[in-house]
Design a protein that fits this description.
Layout lengths: L1 H7 L10 H33 L6 H26 L16 H26 L8 H10 L2 H38 L4 H14 L4 H21 L2 H13 L8 H38 L1
């Protein structure tokens, strides 16, 4: 736990990784997740059926959701622990401080992205089938009690809004992106794009994959310019939590587009400016 805590607080160095290794890490994460889902579903459903033949699949979904979450935490923890440089586990002295203004601008960046997505991407992404079809949703709603729907919804909310941002930022930004940044020291854009591509592929469906790829570039930029995973987790949380109504008229689409582009550019410029100033301060401290 001490190692994982030091990774989260940006107090240790991460090994550089190749593109192939980054894909392997992602593949292991997905395989473990899918195997855990299928195996636990079979075991839990079989066990509950022996106890009560008439039991609904609501409790099965809840238990399986908890089991898969725990397995994902374990895999990400192992990946994080193995990513620490063996000769650099000592605490890094120059910790990065985060200001409230940085949180504000990160929030504006994600709001800008969501506004732009609602105008330019939603119609395109809606043409493809996501991980859960409308028939699946109807089946779930028609075969679960009100209490079960509430509990399943709560578990899904916790997984999507709280756990996913933490685990995915830990794995895809702190381990994979940071490892790629260490390898491609003079080409941070390449590292960000590759990590975003891996992040998109990891979602295993076209609409989420396209959205995750673009979001991954934004989250990667936030991580690169700030150097702190806490801000990328915050950005990921806002993206998964915040819902904005889809604009129907041309006027509102125009407002969404202009405001979204403005907020996105404004936020990125601020983080980029802070990055440059931070590098200048470090150079000054070293030279002095």
């Amino acid at each position: 736990m001490r190692a994982l805590k030091s990774i989260y607080k940006n107090e240790c160095q991460i090994k550089e990784i190749s593109i192939l290794k980054a894909f392997i890490i992602m593949a292991i994460y997905l395989v473990v997740y899918m195997l855990t889902t299928y195996v636990s579903t079979f075991i839990v459903s079989s066990g509950m059926t022996l106890i009560n033949e008439d039991i609904s699949f609501g409790p099965v979904m809840i238990v399986v959701g908890i089991i898969t979450t725990v397995s994902s935490i374990i895999v990400v923890s192992i990946a994080g622990r193995m990513s620490i440089k063996k000769d650099a586990e000592e605490i890094i002295s120059n910790k990065i401080s985060i200001t409230k203004k940085e949180f504000l601008y990160v929030f504006l960046i994600i709001v800008g992205f969501i506004l732009i997505r609602e105008v330019f991407l939603l119609d395109i992404l809606s043409q493809f089938e996501g991980p859960i079809s409308e028939n699946d949703i109807d089946f779930i709603l028609n075969n679960l009690s009100t209490i079960e729907i509430g509990i399943v919804g709560l578990v899904f909310f916790i997984q999507t809004v709280i756990i996913a941002p933490i685990l995915e930022e830990f794995l895809f930004r702190r381990v994979i992106l940071n490892g790629l940044l260490s390898k491609y020291k003079n080409n941070y854009k390449k590292a960000i794009i590759i990590s975003a591509l891996i992040f998109g592929i990891a979602h295993l469906n076209i609409p989420q994959g396209i959205n995750a790829f673009i979001l991954g570039i934004i989250l990667g930029g936030i991580y690169y310019y700030t150097g702190y995973m806490k801000l990328s987790i915050f950005a990921h949380f806002i993206n998964n939590f915040l819902f904005l109504p889809t604009p129907e008229t041309f006027l509102f689409k125009w407002i969404y587009a202009v405001l979204g582009i403005y907020l996105l550019i404004k936020g990125v410029k601020y983080l980029k400016y802070n990055k440059i100033n931070s590098l200048r301060d470090n150079d000054y401290n070293i030279n002095s």
